[in-house]
């Protein structure tokens, strides 16, 4: 079996937005990334991830896993139905539903109740789909943390990842008490809000990710796009923050990712 102390899982990477996917996957493979979860954000990205998964199968590259979603910042009324039709058609191939959720921080949403209701309706449909196919949900939430949690609980969802959590501690407590998890990105290196959340949450409730291609500090302090190989940066920052050996943090992160997304072990 592949050694869990030399490989790592990136639980959130938007490969559809990476210019040279083959190069990113080679670098990830060389770095020991065994699996990558690919959350979609709209119809185009969901389709692209399906294509990438079909193309990059076998060999030494990481295994790619689909998560199908419509991001709250990408809602276009005319594209909602085609996106959900596609997600339903491919839900059997997915390991999660998302990226979905609520984001009331967007300036075009803050004071527009119609836009907020639109997000609620779309998020609710994701939750129904996840429950129907018994899939975990990847939740994006900003400025609506409590409401997003309440909707997840009301929908009877059994597994939810509150991706890149940076919200209030009281909501985080309730997220964890409900048996849900959070995920952290390389922002652990510099974000006070993300570090605070990671300090509060137990290690066994934290997934590691890159949110590729989110911009991260480069070697000369310039901002550079992340790729899945950078999930090691998240892991190392988490281990340092928690004051544990990196091997301990890695074993826990891999175990949680495999159980949360139901990823099988495989021969390597």
Summary, kept brief:
With 268 residues, the protein is α/β, with parallel strands linked by helices. The chain is built from 9 helices and 10 strands.
Describe the structure.
- The structure is a single chain.
- The chain is α/β, with parallel strands linked by helices and 268 residues long.
- It has one domain: Metal-dependent hydrolases (TIM Barrel, Alpha-Beta Barrel).
- The chain is 43% helix and 18% strand.
- It has 9 helices and 10 strands.
- Strands 1-2-3-4-5-6-7-8 form an 8-stranded parallel β-sheet.
- Strand 9 and strand 10 (223-225) form a beta hairpin.
- Helix 8 crosses helix 9 (246-260).
- It is globular and about 45 Å long.
- The model has no long low-confidence stretch (mean pLDDT 95).
Please tell me the CATH architecture by its name. Answer: Alpha-Beta Barrel
Level-1 CATH class name: Alpha Beta
Report how far apart the termini are. 6 Å
Q: Structural class of the secondary structure composition?
A: alpha/beta
Order of helices and strands: EHEHEHEHEHEHEHEEEHH
Q: What characterizes the major β-sheet?
A: 8 strands, parallel
What do we call the CATH topology?
A: TIM Barrel
Radius of gyration: 17 Å
- The helicity comes to 40-55%
Mean pLDDT: 95
Q: What is the tally of helical segments?
A: 9
Sequence stretches where pLDDT stays below 50 over 5 or more residues: none
Spatial order of the strands in the main sheet? 1-2-3-4-5-6-7-8
Oligomer: single chain
Annotation keywords:
8-stranded parallel sheet; TIM Barrel; two-stranded antiparallel sheet; 10 strands; 268 residues
